[in-house]
Amino acid sequence: MIGSWQQTSLYSSTTKTTSEMDRAWVYLVTGGCGFIGERIVELLSQQDYIKEVRVFDSAAREEVEKFTTGTENVLRACCDLNIPYVVYTSSIAAVGPNTLHEPMFRGNEDTKYSGEVELPYGKTKAMAEKLVFEANGKKLSNGGKLTTCIIRPNTVYGEKASFLQELYLLAKARKGVLNYLEPENTERNNTYVGNVAWMHVLAARNLQLKPDILAGQVYYSYDDTPTRKGFLIRHQLLSSMDPSVRLGSHIPYWKMWLMIQLHRIIKVILYPFWKPPAFINLPLLNTIVTTFSYETDKAWRHFGYKPLFTWEESKHRTVQWLKAAAGNLEPPQPHDKKN
């Protein structure tokens, strides 16, 4: 989440004007030590209209863990402290898939989709989105108003994407074979982390410049990543890093369903004497095998977003990071080989 406000520049503190050049923007990034947040901070720090970038993250402040309903606290603080702009980082999981596993095929921000969200993560994101929507237009303590918008990424890849490291280890444990769970006709958007971060930067800036257009809006993240088939993207990234990685076969739904049930039974029988390693659960499996894709240019139409990184640049950066990180990866444990 990005919050921003304007303060008089240190260089003109004695002469307050309304000129943009005489003022400096201060940005606060909550979760700024995370996978996406770190890239947002990096890009914000390169913008010459920003005086200061502040980072707030539970990784840096242990006492933050005592708070609950974090989004509500941030929005309340914005109103109390007269911070007029908020860009909230949500997820496509806030929309679906639902518990009936109904697909969404290349929809957009206006596509109607209903039903109870399947994943617990999605439910919390949907609750947070509701708070952000309701906070848009709320009165600040100085008489101004709060202006908010929402960014919804889907599957995000790039440097420091831990799931790519985990998949590489699994593939190496299977002699370089990269199997996959989603059926070959399943679609889900994949976006490079740098482009997701860039969309946040542009949205935050234009929320200030064009609030009548961006206020209360939601935007899906997108770039020119060439396919919506996740297993093909993963294979391209990992095989570019290590040519011995080859695409395997689709794991049938019924087989994974049985493995999940077996894992649950073993966990119940052996608890508390032994805790089996974490394993995929049924809601996550159902999400993986359900098409949930979108096709949109809303961010370009509203605030001129274009991907900062091309697919080739995104792939190169991700692959170089994977190569550098490979030497620090721990070999898979025996139970990983069985799974």
Task: Write up this protein.
- By secondary structure, the protein is α/β, with parallel strands linked by helices.
- The chain has a single domain, classed as 3-Layer(aba) Sandwich (Rossmann fold), CATH 3.40.50.
- The chain has twelve helices and twelve strands.
- A six-stranded mixed beta sheet has the order 3-2-1-4-6-10, with helices on both faces. A two-stranded parallel ribbon has the order 5-12. Strands 7-9 form a two-stranded parallel ribbon.
- Helix 1 links the parallel strand 2 (23-30) and strand 3 (50-56).
- Helix 1 (35-44) crosses helix 5 (193-209) and helix 7 (230-241) packs across helix 11 (311-326).
Number of structural units classed as domains: 1
Order of helices and strands: EEHEHEEHEEHEEHHEHEHHEHHH
| Rg over C-alpha atoms, rounded to the nearest angstrom | 22 Å
C-alpha termini separation: 36 Å
Structural class: alpha/beta
